[in-house]
Amino acid sequence: MPTKILIVTGDAAESLEVLYPYQRLREEGYEVHIAAPTRKTLRFVVHDFEPGYDTYTEKPGYTWPADLAFAEVDPGAYAALVIPGGRAPEYLRNDPELRKILKAFFDADKPVAQICHGPLLTAAIDSLRGRRVTAYPALEPDMQAAGAGFQDAETVVDGTLVSARAWPDHPAWMREFINVLRSEAPVD
């Protein structure tokens, strides 16, 4: 059986931050599943940077089906986890089923890739304390409050945790995550 990787997300996730790792990891030979609060067609968004705006803008993005609901996930069946950003982490961090999934991955020290606002999820389960991370730069105070050392860098690798700021950092983020996977969770 191929090595499986789980992506956890929901409505209003950033389209590129879900679909780029989904496709890139499949290209490497991993079996990738997307989990959400329920099995349904998810509605993603596109965050972009436009002149004259003090922050990013948001537009409707792609839709994509969730393979399974959080309650159906067996974390032991997956070798690694991907946590996309967008607005989804703002509400997903309150989901008790997702919190169990996240905790299982961190307790087992399995590889985790997080990007943009995704670290809000790992902060919510107190898994960033004492670690080095990056995230969307506006989250620096949140990361520090979670006990993490924030670095404004393309990607930060701390053991099996690989983080990135936002979708422009995808090449460096996935390159580093795949390096971790080759060591910790190679393709069968």
Question: Which secondary structure elements does this structure contain, and how are they paired or packed?
Answer:
Elements (H helix, E strand, L loop, with lengths): L3 E5 L6 H13 L3 E6 L4 E8 L8 E9 L2 E2 L10 E4 L4 H5 L3 H12 L4 E4 L3 H6 L7 E2 L6 H6 L3 E2 L4 E4 L2 E4 L5 H15 L4
Parallel strand pairs: 1-2, 1-6, 2-5, 6-7, 7-11, 8-9
Antiparallel strand pairs: 3-4, 10-11
Task: Give an overview of the whole structure.
There is one protein chain. This protein has 188 residues and is of the alpha/beta class. Helices cover 30% and strands 27% of the residues. It is built from six helices and eleven strands. A seven-stranded mixed sheet has the order 5-2-1-6-7-11-10, with helices on both faces. A two-stranded antiparallel ribbon has the order 3-4. A two-stranded parallel sheet has the order 8-9. β10 and β11 form a beta hairpin. It is globular. The N and C termini lie close together (7 Å). The relative contact order is 0.18. Belongs to the peptidase C56 family. This is DJ-1/PfpI family protein. InterPro entries: C56_PfpI-like, Class_I_gatase-like, DJ-1/PfpI. It holds the Pfam family DJ-1_PfpI.
